[in-house]
């Protein structure tokens, strides 16, 4: 139900003003009041509002999962979650919040790793989970238009009968939303083959903080008409507006997918191996993923995938998962077998052994060893997650140096930190450096930061290769962005969101 302008004005005038300073330091933001809930309940059915405030008054534990990230590292104090079903409803909510200066946090599947989708204070959470319809699919062009709240896996299932796949794939696919993927510019396991979302996303529908709807939901492959505004929202982490619809190009399903896990005696072999694999598999190579020994052991310990036969892992310092996706089943398998033969038959073999999947179940099981590292780590304790781009050659050095650094501070093993491990997307130059401890402790954070960011900056790398900045890295943005860049980002933010209501405390300080 839409609320009339006069009704909105009346409610605005009567609304209480529990003002406080926002985390961005740029504007006064207000807390939600009972009058706001009264207004929201004119826009949304009561079942789509979770609030501890009258006249809804849901139990506060219902709010907990929306206020915390899945790692239990970031916590907000929102009193109110709104679950709109339509773009128009999102627009009405934002218009109201903008006029009232109420902070807003858009939330998808809440699977992020940098605290981007939970409030810093008591912002209203707009959950996109009720906006979960496919709007249109053209199996000829492969262009899919979907609500932002569609779960990635359900979209993968939707396009599968049409012999297409989604251009992204990530461990959280069973719960992450396509809108969240776009808002965070999620990378994932298919980036090597299909590139980033900046290329696959053709159009977006975005509700701006003042409630206006930016309809750029084009399905065109070519549209060279000046500034490509949608690119600004890809990776903006909800700081410029709420993405409500996504138009995305889905690639044809490869006819044949194979994978193999190679065990390597030394990390030094990773780079020559990558060169060899690229040369021999050329266009059918679709993933080249790295798992160090610690990461592998944890994945196995926590039952992610099936452990490789013991004999194949003896003496392995690290593992590489190679995937091929091509158009000719026999040809592709032969290419992979030829690769294995030539690697193992070399005078100085780069690998100890390789385990090739022989069935769809084995294919998934090998992937689970890699995809499941995050899950395994979460079962071990609290993880400090650094998601960095550094030259491939320094992946191992960075992990080893971090371990030694923690040891020198007396924090390793006997004192809180249990593991330091590395894994990630070698093909994309992206290392996931995880430090696993018993708890999130200030002395560990102090030992890790700015240490890791300085290492990254010394390589002219990125402090966030794919997970974003969220609330976790706002203070460190300058390690990867120049002053000029940050000033421009702030100006862009001010143009779209002059009152600073959108996802305050994220991306920019
Ligand atoms: O948990 C992490 O640090 C990485 C998660 C994800 O980006 C992955 O590549 O598995
Ligand atoms: Zn990753």
TrEMBL record:
It catalyses: (R)-lactate + 2 Fe(III)-[cytochrome c] = 2 Fe(II)-[cytochrome c] + pyruvate + 2 H(+). GO terms for molecular function: D-lactate dehydrogenase (cytochrome) activity; FAD binding. Keywords: FAD, Flavoprotein, Oxidoreductase. GO terms for cellular component: mitochondrion. It holds the Pfam family FAD_binding_4. The keyword Oxidoreductase applies. Residues 74-253 form the FAD-binding PCMH-type domain. Its cofactor is FAD. The keyword Flavoprotein applies. InterPro entries: FAD-bd_oxidored_4_C, FAD-bd_PCMH, FAD-bd_PCMH-like_sf, FAD-bd_PCMH_sub1, FAD-bd_PCMH_sub2, FAD-linked_Oxase-like_C, FAD-oxidored/transferase_4, Oxid_FAD_bind_N. Belongs to the FAD-binding oxidoreductase/transferase type 4 family. This is FAD-binding domain-containing protein.
């Amino acid at each position: 139900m839409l609320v009339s302008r006069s009704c909105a004005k009346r409610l605005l005038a009567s609304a209480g003003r529990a003002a406080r300073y926002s985390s961005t330091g740029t504007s006064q933001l207000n807390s939600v009041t009972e009058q706001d809930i009264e207004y929201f309940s004119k826009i949304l059915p009561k079942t789509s509002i979770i609030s501890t405030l009258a006249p809804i008054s849901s139990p506060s534990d219902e709010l907990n999962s929306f206020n915390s990230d899945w790692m239990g590292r970031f916590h907000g104090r929102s009193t109110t979650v709104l679950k709109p079903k339509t773009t128009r409803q999102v627009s009405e909510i934002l218009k109201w919040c903008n006029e009232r200066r109420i902070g807003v946090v858009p939330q998808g599947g809440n699977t992020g790793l940098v605290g981007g989708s939970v409030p810093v204070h008591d912002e209203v959470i707009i959950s996109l989970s009720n906006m979960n319809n496919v709007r249109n699919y053209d199996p000829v062009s492969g262009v899919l238009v979907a609500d932002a709240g569609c779960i990635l896996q359900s979209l993968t299932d939707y396009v599968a009968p049409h012999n297409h796949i989604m251009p992204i794939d990530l461990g959280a696919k069973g719960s992450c939303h396509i809108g969240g993927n776009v808002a965070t510019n999620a990378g994932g396991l298919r980036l090597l083959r299909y590139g980033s979302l900046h290329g696959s996303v053709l159009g977006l529908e975005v509700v701006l903080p003042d409630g206006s709807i930016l309809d750029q939901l084009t399905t065109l492959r070519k549209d060279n008409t000046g500034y490509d505004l949608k690119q600004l929202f890809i990776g903006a982490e909800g700081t410029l507006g709420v993405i409500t619809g996504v138009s995305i190009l889905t690639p044809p399903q490869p006819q044949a997918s194979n994978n193999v896990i190679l065990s390597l005696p030394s990390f030094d072999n990773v780079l020559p191996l990558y060169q060899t694999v690229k040369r021999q598999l050329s266009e059918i190579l679709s993933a080249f993923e790295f798992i160090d020994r610690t990461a592998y052991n944890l994945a196995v310990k926590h039952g992610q995938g099936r452990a490789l036969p013991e004999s194949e892992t003896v003496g392995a310092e690290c593992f590489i998962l190679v995937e091929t996706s091509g158009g000719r089943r026999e040809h592709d398998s032969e290419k992979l077998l030829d690769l294995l033969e030539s690697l193992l038959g070399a005078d100085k073999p780069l690998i100890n052994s390789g385990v090739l999947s022989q069935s769809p179940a084995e294919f998934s099981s090998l992937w689970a060893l890699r995809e499941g590292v995050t899950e395994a780590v979460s079962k071990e304790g609290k993880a400090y997650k650094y998601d960095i781009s550094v030259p491939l050659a320094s992946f191992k050095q960075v992990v080893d140096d971090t371990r030694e650094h923690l040891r020198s501070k007396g924090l390793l093993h006997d004192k809180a930190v249990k593991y330091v491990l590395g894994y990630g997307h070698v093909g994309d130059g992206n290392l996931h450096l995880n430090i696993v401890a018993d708890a999130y402790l200030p002395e560990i954070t102090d030992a890790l930061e700015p240490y890791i960011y300085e290492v990254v900056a010394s390589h002219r790398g990125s402090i966030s290769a794919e997970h974003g900045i969220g609330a976790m890295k706002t203070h460190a943005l300058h390690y990867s962005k120049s002053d000029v860049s940050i000033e421009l980002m702030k100006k862009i933010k001010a143009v779209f969101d002059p009152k600073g209501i959108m996802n305050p405390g994220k991306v920019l300080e």
